[in-house]
């Protein structure tokens, strides 16, 4: 199943003209399509819960859109929990899956009533001792290497995430000693997972672990499905995966003697393809070896190519049918901030608008004020209309929360 963005280039150009550039634009209908695609893949399971991974794109209007679709939320910080509550989610619709946070932060989330997910023995024992009646999910590390690269592979033996499957006896000892209530088992192996057999293998480890706990309400399989980044790119076959895991999950529930909820935490899968990042070309610079298209943005707005080596397809929407030439697309930051090297793009002129595809996930949410640049605006394309959902920052925003102190001029004091 495929679905292209409904936003035509003409509409994107209007958005860039009306709201300025650089700017992030998200297609609500594409997000809705991806949500339906995922739920349909698991239609054979009676109880399925999709918790949108807030860290992918945390704008409150996006969260409200997710709520309207029927999603819950996967949160990793107390701030994301509060965003979810502000967006109208009830505590039972939110799971809190932090890593390396203090016991105090977890207790704060528990007081708010959200589902707690703990991924280390120390906090598990401390929390269970103090709050034995509070339901807790346990995050397991299945020791499976999966994901697009080492930075986004989080279920292998050297990962900081989750409690090792080899430490199950320690978990059981803590549960027995504290009499705490374990209502869920969870794993997340990584992002950009292509091989569904690897995911199914990890799922078997989770099923084996779940047998140790008699009062489970759900099993959460994380997420990490790969999305295509260009025409013809490979992606996770979510329909095949849904069919295979649904069958196995139903078999497990029958053996367990109880209908459990099958949980997932999609982030990138729901919002990545829905997003486009629009930038304006400031300068076309010819050097002895390269033609640079220098744009009004940098890794302060879109860090993924520099951080992960991610490949975002770039289209010249001002001249989409122009003769293709080779360009290196770079930003205005005072360090190397290359978006693309020697990329074939329709002929670029100064003032043209370029669109970066797959800009919905981990793009705005990882932006910064580096070089004291303003973070861009965000627009949601909903019901064939552009809605501004975040204003572009101003100089006042740069100064906000800074405190000026009086510093004497040494030269004058002499």
Task: Give the gist of this structure.
This protein is of the alpha/beta class and 414 residues long. The chain has 13 helices and 18 strands. It has helices spanning 9-19, 28-41, 60-69, 78-86, 103-111, 121-130, 168-178, 196-210, 238-256, 268-271, 304-307, 395-399, 410-413; strands at 23-27, 48-53, 72-75, 94-96, 115-118, 136-141, 163-164, 182-186, 218-220, 261-264, 275-286, 291-295, 314-316, 324-330, 338-346, 353-356, 377-382, 385-390.
Care to describe what's here?
It is a single chain. The chain is of the alpha/beta class. Strand 9 (218-220), helix 9 (238-256) and strand 10 form a beta-alpha-beta unit. The protein contains 13 helices and 18 strands. The chain is globular and about 70 Å long. The termini are far apart. Strands 1, 11, 12, 13, 14, 15, 16, 17 and 18 form a nine-stranded mixed sheet that branches. The protein folds into two domains: 28-267, Alpha-Beta Barrel (TIM Barrel), CATH 3.20.20.10; 275-395, Lyase, Ornithine Decarboxylase, Chain A, domain 1 (Beta Barrel), CATH 2.40.37.10. The protein has helices at residues 9-19, 28-41, 60-69, 78-86, 103-111, 121-130, 168-178, 196-210, 238-256, 268-271, 304-307, 395-399, 410-413, and strands at 23-27, 48-53, 72-75, 94-96, 115-118, 136-141, 163-164, 182-186, 218-220, 261-264, 275-286, 291-295, 314-316, 324-330, 338-346, 353-356, 377-382, 385-390. Residues 24-360 form the Orn/DAP/Arg decarboxylase 2 C-terminal domain. Residues 38-272 form the Orn/DAP/Arg decarboxylase 2 N-terminal domain. Substrate binds at residues 304, 308, 335, 362. Its cofactor is pyridoxal 5'-phosphate. Belongs to the Orn/Lys/Arg decarboxylase class-II family. LysA subfamily.
């Amino acid at each position: 199943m495929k679905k292209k963005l409904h936003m035509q280039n003409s509409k994107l150009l209007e958005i860039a003209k009306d709201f300025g550039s650089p700017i992030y634009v998200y297609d609500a209908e594409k997000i809705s399509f991806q949500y339906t695609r995922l739920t349909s893949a698991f239609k054979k399971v009676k109880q399925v819960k999709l918790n949108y991974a807030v860290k992918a794109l945390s704008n409150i209007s996006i969260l409200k859109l997710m709520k309207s679709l029927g999603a819950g939320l996967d949160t990793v910080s107390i701030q994301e929990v509060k965003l979810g509550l502000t967006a109208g989610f009830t505590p039972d619709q939110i799971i809190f899956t932090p890593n390396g946070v203090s016991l105090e932060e977890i207790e704060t989330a528990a007081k708010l009533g959200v589902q707690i997910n703990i991924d280390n023995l120390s906090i598990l024992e401390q929390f269970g001792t103090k709050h034995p009646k509070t339901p807790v999910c346990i995050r397991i590390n299945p020791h499976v290497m999966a994901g697009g690269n080492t930075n986004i592979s989080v279920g292998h033996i050297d990962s900081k995430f989750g409690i090792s499957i080899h430490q199950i006896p320690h978990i059981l000892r803590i549960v027995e000693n504290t009499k705490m209530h374990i209502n869920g088992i969870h794993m997340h192996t990584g992002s950009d997972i292509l091989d569904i057999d690897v995911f199914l293998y990890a799922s078997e480890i989770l099923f084996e672990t779940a047998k140790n706990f008699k009062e489970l309400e759900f099993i959460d399989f994380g997420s990490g499905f790969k999305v295509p980044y260009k025409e013809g790119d490979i992606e996770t076959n979510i329909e095949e995966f849904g069919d295979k895991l649904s069958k196995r999950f139903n078999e497990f529930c029958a053996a367990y003697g109880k209908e459990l909820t099958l949980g997932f935490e999609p982030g990138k899968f729901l919002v990545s393809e829905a997003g486009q990042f629009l930038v304006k070309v400031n300068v076309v610079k010819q050097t002895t070896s390269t033609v640079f298209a220098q744009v009004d943005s940098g890794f302060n707005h879109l860090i993924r190519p520099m951080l992960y080596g991610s490949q975002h397809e770039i289209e010249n929407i001002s001249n989409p049918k122009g003769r293709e030439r080779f360009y290196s697309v770079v930003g205005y930051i005072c360090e190397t901030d290359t978006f693309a090297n020697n990329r074939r793009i329709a002929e670029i002129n100064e003032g043209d608008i370029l669109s970066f595809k797959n800009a919905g996930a981990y793009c705005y949410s990882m932006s910064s004020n580096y070089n004291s640049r303003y973070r861009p605006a965000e627009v949601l394309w909903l019901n064939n209309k552009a809605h501004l959902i975040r204003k572009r920052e101003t100089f006042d925003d740069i100064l906000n929360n800074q405190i000026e102190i009086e510093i004497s001029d040494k030269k004058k004091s002499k």
